[in-house]
């Protein structure tokens, strides 16, 4: 009698994983084969139906090809026309969006100016104007200081009364 080695839980899990992979692979292969068979069958049925339709209506395959080409040409023409119309509409919409953006910016600016005015906060223009005036006055004062001599304090003692 030959002694058999017991497999560890890790080995059993690995074998089970391999079995699952094989069965999954088998299922995928079977599903793929069934899909290929269904597509092939549908293609054959469509071809049979088309032949019957052409025969029943006494349509020559060359005529059917010509009609199909005319339909394809018409569809392409309509697609290009729709594309041009869509481009025009998009351009008009973009123009409206630009105009509305300008209006919104103007309204927001007015609201901010109104709020700052109500809170008695000076605007940037008012602050820069005041700064310019202060600088101008400072230059004038400095000019007066330089042009007029300073009175020197006298060194005589003050007379007593």
> What is the chain-wise order of helices and strands?
HHH
Q: What is the radius of gyration?
A: 47 Å
**Which regions have little confidence, pLDDT < 50, spanning 5+ residues?**
none
Please work out how many helical segments DSSP would assign: 3
DSSP strand count:
0
**Multimeric state:** single chain
Average pLDDT rating: 83
Structural class: mainly alpha
Major sheet summary line: none
Annotate the secondary structure layout:
Blueprint: H1 9-56, H2 61-118, H3 124-147
Provide key terms for this protein.
161 residues, mainly alpha
Please provide a brief summary of the model.
This protein has helices at residues 9-56, 61-118, 124-147. It is mostly helical and 161 residues long. The longest helix is centred in the middle third of the chain and has 58 residues, at 61-118.
